[in-house]
Amino acid sequence: MDDSAGRRGSERTGGRWRHRRASGGPGRTAQAAADRLLSGALSARLRGDPAAFARCAAELSDRPGEPDWSRVVDHALAHRETLAVTAAWRLGWQPADVVRIVRRRHGARHARMATDMIAAEMRRYSAAAVDERWRAQLAALGARTWPGRGDAEPAERPARGGLDRPAAIATALDVLAVLATLPELPRLCPPPGEAGTGGAEAGVPARAVDDERTLARVRALLAKAESTEFPEEAEALSARAQQLMARHRIDDALLAAGARAGARGDEPAGRRVGVDDPYESPKTMLLDAVARANRCRVVWHRGLGFCTVLGFPADLDAVELLFTSLLVQATAAMVAAGPRRGDGGRPRTRSFRRSFLVAYAQRIGERLGEVTEAAEREAAAESPGTDLLPALAAREEAVDQAVGRMFPRLGRSAVTTAGDRDGWLHGRAAADLAQLHERDEVTGTGDAGR
After folding, report:
1. What is the pTM of this model?
2. What is d(CA 216, CA 137) in angstroms, rounded to the nearest whole number?
3. Are strands 269-274 and 306-311 parallel, antiparallel or unpaired?
4. Tens of pLDDT along 147-167?
């Protein structure tokens, strides 16, 4: 692909590309020029041509001699952003998914830009037309919307985000390039405009917003703890994550999940759970261990920074919260072990930590399996004459059928192995010390007979 989209109707003069005048008046000509430059910049970014991207972005930022150029570019950019975000919803993406993939590709500044784009697009819908789960994600992201106001429009972003105009435009173009490459995902809930009309007055349930926001804050702390090179800072960040989880009352949230299940319908559903770099594969192993103990299934979207977990609603609540709690504990133990060096002072911290997490995930799976078997025996003893196995098997079959419907061409991933014996032993030891919950909290099988 060449960059003709950014040069059509142009000529080179004095080292810069100037667009020739066309019929239709100066306003229409400026709009067409802005559209061509946007197309040229995105084309250049997607094909990996930084020089062409920089030329187009610079002219979008400032075009001397063109009256009202900033307003024209902002209008064209806002239109592109709306189309791109709406297309993401049609592809099965949700707000948290979009912000997560943008942050993964470019960082926090771009993630804030993506949140602004989502907020602007969401002004098109009434609250009644937006699913409760969607609203919970928007609230957790801080993507507040005010119909009729321009808080998230391109012109107002530089001052709000601490960027100058060229940086803001380049950042917006980067986000649009990410949105242009999103793959299709299974649809987990109705996109905006297709949700039911009832219950809008109630707003977003406080519990759902609190869960989303707390989990996001905890994951951010864990990411910082993992990335820092200073053990003291890592331990402090991990301790903060542990305190946050304790204050959130994980135990109460898991108990409440069972009480909420009856009100939300007893059918399998899907939920995306973030699994961040580094060590994405062993972290996915941990999520899978927790999910299987809760009679859920995990599908890993390699390279996208998340997994889809399928199961019954109360079980999904337990999986997400317990996985986060166990990951907090694993990270705290891992960073407390400190950096590692091999022969000759060669760093081996990465291999140590990867092996640590692999061993931790496997041992957690063993422990949860033991708890599951024991609790099923206890439940059977407390309900003589009642055979729980058919009910449990029916639920598992329903989940497996949901996986087959959503992912008809699902493949299998190779199991990550551990190559560092020291890391393996430390990971097993940490898993033995990890706090687990009572069976009806961890596995969600207290509602299996309903």
Report:
1. 0.74
2. 10
3. antiparallel
4. 444 444 676 666 566 788 999
